[in-house]
């Protein structure tokens, strides 16, 4: 575990130089508080770990909620398709007054007197045999499963995105700490330059150079603070929370021991857990059912219908009538529309087979890339830590040479820059390492166990 508190070299000061430091107290006062951000008592505080942030995104992210609504839509479509297999009952009632034309004849108008007609009927229609409708219903049920798996895949993508956003915020937070350490270090080096000048061992140029370097580090600190605040806003947006909160991240960038995996083991885990592969299998099944439904339109279908009701000139005198019939429909020729649908469905099946191969290749690529990156970033962390240790040793030696007057503070300034770069290298290496952990977990479909 890497502690992100940066070591700061201390300096020994003689009593002879304390007096000049008392005269110039404002020159060395830090321009920034050591706190990460000013306290905000008006906003509620929300403390989040990496795991908490990813879980919160599943519940609050608008994209995840949208995919949940698509599941509901698919379920409603399946219910609608089921309705074509169930009885359809309708009722109607009517009343009318009519005159009938009997034709022209000698001595008459050929038109009857007005007559009243009243009718009330209930009708029922039932599909008795239709393989095409059955396959359409099965396809609609499969589409519900596809929508559910798509929603799960989107949830994994959202969790990975939020996880990486959390790590980027941690990187920005670590950068703020590093810049604060640089500012503190430059204050100490400025004190040393003033000491050397009053002792006659340095010039005003050395003091001015130290002041310029201090102002540069203050500028970098301001930029780092701004980047940190922006990263927190992006994280809040990714989770789907309100911006009116004070977000506090409880995790730190650190190195962890990762169990070793061979490429074959990692690919096997991905094959068993990746939701995209499961969803694609369902899409293939959906395309096959759609083709089957279109092909079975060639098969004759049987429908039964009937109605019963009352009809008469007067409501009290209405008589009961009924009608029952069977309808056998035999497809013969529809202008080639059915064959066109069959050909289109076959093409969709072939497209889904191609997509399945492409997704398998993509999953294999993501797993292999994540494994390579994880191994590389582990080595990067080790190298960056060694670089920081050597940079601090270089700074200490340069400071000692400047303190005894052997060299100017140009060497010290160069060593300062080396330390700042080394700190950035450590931060970047730790970020890349943890990001590769997230990417590997996403590639294997195991984000929830990260």
Structure description:
- With 450 residues, the chain is α+β, with helices and mostly antiparallel strands.
- It has a single domain (50-89, 129-300, 337-449), classed as Up-down Bundle (Outer membrane efflux proteins (OEP)).
- It has helices at 15-23, 50-60, 62-83, 131-198, 204-239, 263-273, 275-295, 337-403, 409-443; strands spanning 45-48, 88-98, 115-129, 246-249, 301-312, 319-329.
- The strands form two sheets. It has a four-stranded antiparallel sheet with strand order 2-3-5-6, with no helix packed on it.
- A hairpin with a 6-residue loop joins strand 5 (301-312) and strand 6.
- The radius of gyration is 39 Å and the shape is elongated.
Give a summary of the structure in a few sentences.
By secondary structure, the protein is an alpha+beta fold.
Cα distance, first to last residue? Answer: 17 Å
Helix coverage percent: 55-70%
Write out the strand line-up for the largest beta sheet, numbering strands in chain order: 2-3-5-6
Largest sheet: 4 strands, antiparallel
The dominant shape is elongated
- By secondary-structure content and strand pairing, the structural class works out as alpha+beta
Oligomerization: single chain
Instruction: Quickly count the helices.
Output: 9
Low-confidence spans? 1-40
Along the chain, the helix and strand elements come as HEHHEEHHEHHEEHH
């Amino acid at each position: 575990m890497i502690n992100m508190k940066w070591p700061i070299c201390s300096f020994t000061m003689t009593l002879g130089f304390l007096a000049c430091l008392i005269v110039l107290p404002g020159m060395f006062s830090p321009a920034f508080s050591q706190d990460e951000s000013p306290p905000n008592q008006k906003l509620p505080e929300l403390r989040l770990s990496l795991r908490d942030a990813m879980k919160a995104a599943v519940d609050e992210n608008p994209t995840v909620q949208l995919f949940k609504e698509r599941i509901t839509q698919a379920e409603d479509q399946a219910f609608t398709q089921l309705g074509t297999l169930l009885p359809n009952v309708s009722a109607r009632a009517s009343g009318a007054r009519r005159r009938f034309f009997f034709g022209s004849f000698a001595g008459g108008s050929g038109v009857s007197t007005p007559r009243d007609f009243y009718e009330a009927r209930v009708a029922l229609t039932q599909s008795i045999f239709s393989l095409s409708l059955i396959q359409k219903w099965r396809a609609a049920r499969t589409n519900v499963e596809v929508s559910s798996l798509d929603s799960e895949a989107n949830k994994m993508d959202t969790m990975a995105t939020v996880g990486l956003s959390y790590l980027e915020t941690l990187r920005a937070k670590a950068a703020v700490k590093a810049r604060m350490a640089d500012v503190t270090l430059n204050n100490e080096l400025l004190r040393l330059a003033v000491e050397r000048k009053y002792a006659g061992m340095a010039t005003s140029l050395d003091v001015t150079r130290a002041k310029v370097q201090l102002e540069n580090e203050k500028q970098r600190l301001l930029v780092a603070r701004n980047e940190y605040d922006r990263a927190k806003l992006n994280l809040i947006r990714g989770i789907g929370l309100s911006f009116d909160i004070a977000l506090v991240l409880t995790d730190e960038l650190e190195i962890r021991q990762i169990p070793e995996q061979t490429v074959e083991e990692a690919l096997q885990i991905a094959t068993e857990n990746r939701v995209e592969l499961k969803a694609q299998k369902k899409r293939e099944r959906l395309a096959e059912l759609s083709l089957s439904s279109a092909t079975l339109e060639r098969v004759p279908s049987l429908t039964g219908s009937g109605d019963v009701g009352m009809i008469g000139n007067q409501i009290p005198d209405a008589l009961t009538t009924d009608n029952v019939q069977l309808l056998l429909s035999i497809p013969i020729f529809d202008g080639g529309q059915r064959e066109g649908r069959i050909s289109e469905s076959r093409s969709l099946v072939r497209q889904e087979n191609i997509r399945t191969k492409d997704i398998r290749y993509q999953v294999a690529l993501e797993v292999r890339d994540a494994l390579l990156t994880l191994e590389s970033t582990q080595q990067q962390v080790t190298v960056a830590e060694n670089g920081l240790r050597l940079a601090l040793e270089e700074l200490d030696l340069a400071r000692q040479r400047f303190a005894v007057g052997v060299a100017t503070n140009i060497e010290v300034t160069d060593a300062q820059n080396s330390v700042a770069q080394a700190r950035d290298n450590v931060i970047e290496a730790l970020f890349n390492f943890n990001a590769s952990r997230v990417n590997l977990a996403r590639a294997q479909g195991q984000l929830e166990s990260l």
